[in-house]
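Protein modeling request. Please complete all fields; requests missing the sequence field cannot be processed.
Requester role: graduate student
Desired output: 3D structure, token encoding
Chains: 1
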Amino acid sequence: MTSALLGADLGLPTSHLDDHAAYIASWLKVLRKDSRAIMTAAAKAEAAAGYLLRATGLDVSVEPEDQIREAA
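Delivered output (72 residues):
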């Protein structure tokens, strides 16, 4: 999920997503056991993506002035 969030934020191509049927199938197995698993995973993926974007200076959700203040 983190890679999908980062890819969307960075504008990466999505043509490779058609090859992820096995990945989706594995999530279906998890969700059959725990319906909230996707929410937990999504929250952690969002936190990880945000961390990576901030660490690299690519965070598009923060105004440039805020990034400069945070770096100081």
